[in-house]
Automatic annotation (TrEMBL):
GO terms for molecular function: heme binding; iron ion binding; trans-cinnamate 4-monooxygenase activity. This is trans-cinnamate 4-monooxygenase. Signal peptide: none annotated. The keyword Membrane applies. It is an enzyme of class 1 (oxidoreductase). Its EC number is 1.14.14.91. Its cofactor is heme. It comes from the Eukaryota. GO terms for cellular component: membrane.
Length: 519
């Protein structure tokens, strides 16, 4: 009451310039009111202090960079999850990263709050290779992304596409299988089977995309593409540039690295624009209206002609498919073959299932659904060696809640899908290669069971599972149906050392493999 009386008397008293208690802007009432307002705002701010997820002590400016370093691979993040819990936060310089490591929280990010966390967070190198998100994978969530996803899915990632394309798959697979027996080394000293299988994968995808194939491993265009993809993967998947992504003031030290990325991307974009897409544009210009699309690129180019997407969208979408579809399929195929070569009894069981179901009939894609053990082997491999262990990064545009914690806007959210699928609290003997677990419990692979997310789930899941699963099963099944696959001479098994990247998990070493024609 005394304060109010003072305020009233002060406000009603005439003000004189010689009076130290009077001010031209309203005197003491203004100062007191300002003090009250500022105090109220400060108290409100303190009450709104965010309840952030736990994590290591954060240093000023550098955050957790000193403790964690640049290498944020799935196994290191799994160790941190054991210490800090199923949700924790890392402040990596200017980058705020939240990692979730439980099926319940994964469901929150990918499904329950799928819209809130549907945006993407790239990095300085990915921004170069995706044209700042023009490739659909890193496009911001919204109408543009929905349009691009539809455009890329319809000609490439549907059951109808599988039905229309499986004859092409079978032709390429059969040629590759036959070629393995064309050299004496296949039966004696062994061969690097990866080379021939990689050409097979390229031919399958390029016939689907452009209705083109490569004659052999010496085809100049194939050599150029393979070299580009290898270098692109090396540059993008490396952790060595993370420091400049976390701490922009260090970016000048990465100048040469970023320049290499930009030059490489320009060359690849020119290659697709001037050779592959130019050919399809020329053929489309001569085609009749009712001729139909001969490949996925035709459908995508028609959508461009209808102004649904831009030319840059087309180029970056095609380039992304060229790298990601081929790389993840090849990576998974190598892991499956390595596991069944190292587990001969499992390879024998796959072969027995095929013989029992098909007899002497050659395996084709429509037969895959009759072979549950073969599919269990594929699933178990994807569980142990998930091709994208942290899925693709998510981001919330607005403040959100996750596991009772506040997530500030613009936070990069990683789902450690590998750890969820290899956590001993969830899986029995997770380190053991045991396909029977997928026979006994028919776990869905396409994202409805959040214990097992090789392709993600929800709005931003990878649509390629429709294509990848039957293709992997077809290749593995035909190889096992034709040969006994063995490690190289004097080897007890293949080296299973792995090489993790920003968004990949490769077999580190390419090992010699021998084949033996079945008796």
């Amino acid at each position: 009451m005394a304060v109010l009386q003072f305020l009233r008397s002060s406000s009603s008293r005439p003000c004189s310039s010689s009076d130290p208690q009077c001010f031209s802007v309203g005197g003491w009432p203004v100062i007191v009111l300002t003090f009250v307002l500022c105090t109220g705002l400060l108290l409100r701010f303190r009450r709104r202090r965010l309840n952030l997820p736990p994590g290591p002590f954060r240093w000023p400016v550098f955050g957790n960079w000193f403790q964690v370093g640049d290498n944020l691979n799935h196994k290191r993040l799994a160790l941190l999850a054991r210490k800090y819990g199923d949700i924790f936060m890392l402040q990596m310089g200017e980058r705020r990263i939240v990692v979730v490591s439980s099926s319940e929280l994964a469901k929150e990010v990918l499904h329950t709050q799928g819209v809130e966390f549907a945006s993407r967070k790239g990095n300085i190198v990915y921004d170069i290779f995706t044209g700042n998100g023009q490739d659909m994978v890193f496009t911001g969530y919204g109408d543009c992304w929905r349009r691009m996803r539809r455009i890329i899915t319809l000609p490439f990632c549907t059951n109808k596409v599988v039905q229309e394309s499986h004859a092409v798959w079978e032709e390429e697979v059969n040629m590759a299988v036959e070629d393995l027996s064309s050299t004496r080394e296949s039966f004696t000293s062994g061969i690097f089977i990866r080379s021939r299988l990689q050409l097979m994968i390229y031919n399958i995808y390029y016939r689907m995309m452009f209705n083109r194939r490569f004659i052999d491993e010496g085809d100049p265009l194939y050599v150029e593409l393979e070299a580009y993809n290898a270098e692109r993967s090396r540059l993008a998947q490396s952790f060595e540039y993370n420091y400049a992504d976390f701490l922009p003031f260090l970016r000048p030290f990465l100048k040469d690295y970023l320049k290499r990325c930009e030059e490489l991307q320009k060359k690849c974009i020119s290659l697709f624009r001037d050779i592959f897409l130019a050919e399809r544009r020329r053929l489309l210009s001569m085609a009749k209206v009712d001729d139909g699309d001969k490949c996925a690129a035709d459908r995508i180019l028609r959508d461009e002609m209808n102004h649904e997407i831009s030319e840059d969208n087309v180029l970056y979408m095609i380039e992304s498919l060229n790298v990601q579809a081929i790389e993840t399929t090849m990576c998974s195929l190598e892991w499956v073959l390595a596991e069944i070569i190292n587990h001969q009894q499992i390879q024998d069981k796959v072969r027995d299932e095929i013989d029992t179901v098909l007899g002497e009939v050659m395996l084709t894609e429509p037969d895959i659904h009759k072979l549950p053990y073969l599919m269990a082997v594929i699933k178990e491999t994807l569980r142990l060696h998930m091709p994208i262990p942290l899925l693709m990064p998510h981001m919330n545009m607005k403040e959100a809640k996750l596991g009772h914690y506040d997530i500030p806007p613009g936070t990069k959210v990683l789902v450690n899908a590998w750890w969820i699928a290899n956590n001993p609290d969830i899986w029995e003997s997770p380190d053991k290669f045991n396909p029977e677990r997928f026979v006994q419990d028919d776990i869905e692979v396409k994202g409805s069971d959040f214990r097992f997310l090789p392709f993600g789930s929800g709005r931003r899941c990878r649509p390629g599972s429709t294509l990848a699963l039957p293709l992997l099963a077809l290749v593995v099944g035909r190889l096992v149906q034709t040969y006994e696959l063995l490690p190289g001479p004097d080897l007890d098994g293949l080296d299973m050392s792995e090489l993790g990247g920003q968004s990949s998990l490769h077999l580190l070493h390419c090992s010699l493999v021998r084949v033996r024609i079945r008796a």
